[in-house]
Amino acid sequence: MNLKVGFAAGIILVVVTTLTIVSLRNEKNVTDQAADNVRQSQQRSFVMHDAPRPLPEFGFENVEGQPMTLSDFEGTVVLLNVWATWCVPCREEMPTLDALQAELGSSEFKVVALSIDRAGVDVVQDFYTEIGIRNLDFFIDPTMKTTTALGIPGLPMTLLIDRNGRELGRLVGPTEWATAEMIKFLETHIYTD
């Protein structure tokens, strides 16, 4: 009988050990997945430079077709978002940029949504109307020279620019702009820059 009890206890020990190992592996997989999620969210965060970087000169136009440069915003922290109506992620993030401008836009801070649509002003104006953009001003570079000047690998691309027209950091790809975390992050640069 003792042999049977010992054998049963051994089997129970093996089963419990196996279940513990499986459980620990599952926990590790969950932990690994959480770490991957954090890494992915960090990839959607700004890559900030150690020191502000000068930007090359490049031009664009406002809605009236008047030529502009970043120097027109000197003294203001600028969030420059380069986008196009044919870029699906750009289209999806545009309402959040509009909400961000409504929340933080002032003489201290401005979202500059710069379209590189070759089709021109009408396409962008139609898009603004279609999705109800109310707070963003309209800027366009139909020559697409901005992408080369700024070294933009893809759209959307967003640069955080200080009051002196220098790049503080950049974010490649779309993000949710009107979150409490993003607003707090931007406020640290608006009010301490």
TrEMBL record:
The chain crosses the membrane at residues 6-24. CDD domains: TlpA_like_family (cd02966). Residues 49-191 form the Thioredoxin domain. GO terms for cellular component: cell envelope. GO terms for biological process: cytochrome complex assembly. Keywords: Cytochrome c-type biogenesis, Disulfide bond, Membrane, Redox-active center, Transmembrane, Transmembrane helix. It is found in: Cell envelope. It comes from the Bacteria. InterPro entries: Redoxin, Thioredoxin-like_sf, Thioredoxin_CS, Thioredoxin_domain, Thioredoxin_ResA/DsbE_sf. Its main location: other. GO terms for molecular function: disulfide oxidoreductase activity. Coiled coil: none annotated. PANTHER family: THIOL:DISULFIDE INTERCHANGE PROTEIN DSBE. This is Thioredoxin domain-containing protein. It comes from Thalassospira profundimaris.
